[in-house]
Amino acid sequence: MLLGFALSYLALLALCLAMARQHKILLQGAPSIGRQRLLRGLALVGLVLGLLLSIEQLGGEIGAVTWLCLLMLAGLLLVAVLAWRARWVLPLAALLPAAGGLTLLV
Amino acid sequence: MSLRQSMAGLHTWGGLLPSWLLYVIIFAGTLACFDKELERWMRPALHQGVASSMTADQVRDWLEANVSDELHAFWMHGPTSREPFWRLGWEVDKTEEMHNVAFDPASQQPMVETLGGGFFFELHYNLHGGTLGMYIVGLAGMFMLVALVSGVIIHRRIFKDFFTLRPNANGQRAWLDAHNLFGVIGFPFHLVLAYTGVAIFVATYMPAGAQVAYNSNVEQFFSDVMGAYNREGVHKPAAQQASLNELVERSRQHWGGAEPGWISVHHPGDEAGVVDIRRFDSSRIAPPLETLSYDDASGTLLNVQNASAGYRAYTWLAGLHMAQFGGTLVRLMYLLLGFAGCAMLVGGLQVWLAKREARGTAGIGLVRALNGGVFVGLPLASLALLWGNRLIPADLTERATAEGWVFVGSWLLLALWAVLRRNQPRSLLSQQLALGAVLALGLPLVNVLTTSHGGLPSSLLRGDWALAGIDLFLLLCGLLCALCAWRCGQPQQAQEPRARRVLVEEAL
C-alpha cells in the first residue's frame, strides 16, 4: 500500500516538475520541451503502475477506489511539502518508494 | 455576462449560504468513518475485548422477558470484529418509535446507555431531524454538487495552479490557493461523495413515480425493487416459534459458510411472522443482496432475495459512500479526504471574508460569528460530547439524552462566545484553539482515570490499535491545536515588518 502511495507521489512529482514554475523551484531553470515530455511520460507510467499495483492487491473494484484515494492524498502531501519544506520534496521521492519496497519485502 | 461570470456569482453565493450546514454534514460524516471504533471507545464494557457468548435466541428471550407490547418488528446484529457485542432494536406496533439495546459481552445484560458513534452518523445524514432533516441535508448536498461544478467552470488556471500553494502570500491569495488546492485535488472524492450521498435517498426526494405506480404503497415498491419478501401481520398468535439459532445455522450453510449480519423479525409471534437473515460481507463495495426469509413459526424458507439490476447499482453507489469495504485503510483515507473537504469549505469562507474585510461589506460580522460558531464550535462540541461520555455517572437514567445535551449545550455556549467576540476573530481563534488543546489532550487522561482497561497504556499493551488509535488521534489533535494557538499569538508582530518593507519600496 505504501508502495502504491509512493508511485502516486512520484507520478505527481513528475507532472509537477514538468511545469516551469515548480521546475525552477526544485531544480535549476526551466525544463526543456524534451524533458517536459519525458517527465509527463514517466508520470503516466507511475499512474498506471500504481493502479495496477492497487488492483493486484485489492481486486479491480476496491483497488481502483483505493488508487484514486491514494493519488489524492499523495497530491495533498506533495503540495504541502512543496509549500512549506520545498527541500524535502526530492528526498521524499527516494524515501517513499524505498520504504514501500521494504514493506513489500517484509 | 459570460458563462464564467455568471457561474462565479453562483459559486460565491450558492457556496457561501449552505457552507456551514455542509461543514456540519461533512465533519460528522468524516467522524462517522470510525463510528464503530468510537462506539467501542464510548462503551467501557467493551474495552477489554471479551468475546460475546450470547446467541440469537438468548437475545430474543431477553426481549420477550422485558418487552410485553405487541411488536411490529425487532432486529439484531451479532458480534463482529469492529462491534464485538450483540445489538437489538425493536419497534412497538402502531408507533414509529425505535428502541435500542446493546448487550455487555461479559454479563449478557444491557450496557450503560450512550449515544455512541451512531450519533455522528445520524447527524451526518439527517441532523437528528428525521425526514425534514434528511431533506435539508439532501438540499445541501445538491448545493454542493452545484458549487463543485461551477467551481470547475470559474477556475481559470485549474491545471497551471494544480500544485500551487503560497502560504506566505497576502491573505486572500493564500486562502484562494488553499481553497482551490483542496477542491481540485480532492475533486473526485468530493464529487463522488456528494453525488452518492444525494443518490442514497433519491426515492425520498423524488417519490412521485413510485407513489403513482404503486398507489402510494411505497413499502410495496421497495420490496419489489429489492426482491425481498413482505407480508402483512394477521394478529393471530402462532402456536410455535422457530429457533433463530437454527435459522442462522441454516443460512450459514446456504451461503457456504458466510456469516449472517442483520437478523430481523417482522410481526414476531404472529402467524404471519417473517424472519429475514442478511448476509454480512465487507469484501465488496456493494453489500451482498442475499437475504433469506423464513416463516417465523415453522422455519420454512419462504424466499431468497433476488434484487433487480437497478437496485444492485443503487447499493453499489450507496456502498461507495458508506465505506464499509476495504477495512481500516479505506476508512482512514475517507477520513483524511473528508477533512480535506472541511478544509475546502473553511478556505472558501476565508476567501469571501478576505475579499470583503477591506471594503467593510455588510454581513461580515454575521459570517465571522458563524465561522467561529460552526467551524470551530462543532469540533469542540464533539470533544465535549466525549468528555460527557466519560464523566456522566453510569447509573443516570436517560444517560444518552444527557450526553446529547452536553453536546448541544456546549455548542450553544461556543456559538454565543463566537457571536460576542466576532469582531476580534484572531484572538477568539487563538483562545478557541487553546480550549481545543485542553479538551483534546485531557481526554486520554480522563480515559486512563475513569476506565480500567481503556487507557492508552493498557490498550497499547494489548495491541488494541482500534481503541488506542482514538486516544492517539486525540493527542495529535490536541498538540496541533496547542501549536496553532501558540502560532496564532505570534504572527501579529511578524506581519508588521513586511508591511513596512512594502511602504519603503513604494517610497523608492
From TrEMBL, chain A:
It comes from the Bacteria. This is DUF3325 family protein.
TrEMBL record, chain B:
Keywords: Membrane, Transmembrane, Transmembrane helix. It comes from the Bacteria. The chain crosses the membrane at residues 12-32, 132-154, 181-206, 332-354, 366-388, 400-420, 432-453, 465-486. Pfam families: PepSY_TM. This is PepSY domain-containing protein.
